[in-house]
Amino acid sequence: MRIPARLVTLSGCATGMNVVAEGDELLGLQRGLFCAGASSLLLSLWDVHDETTAELMRSFYAHFTASNDMAGSLRRAMHEIRARHPHPYFWAPFFLTGQLADNKALR
What we know:
Layout: E1 7-9, E2 18-21, E3 25-28, H1 29-35, E4 40-44, H2 50-67, H3 70-84, H4 88-91, E5 94-98
Parallel strand pairs: 1-4
Antiparallel strand pairs: 2-3, 4-5
Helix pairs in contact: 2-3
């Protein structure tokens, strides 16, 4: 399967978790999506809350389509959710990994 996408978002539960296999190889969705051609991924580290995740994704994509800034858009969306739901469970499970538009690695 080829996925030549700039950004792939998996907003479900624990989509960014990996399993360590023999030889300390990390196996997970990240590796498969990068091998398929995705440049950047937006993934979660734990089981997410459905309603606040939907709010966060709407906010992220609204900011992203307006600014073309993945990291800044995620940061703004997280701040918006955090203002209404201060516990990190609601706003902190998501992270970006991969390449920015100018080929600088995301950290």
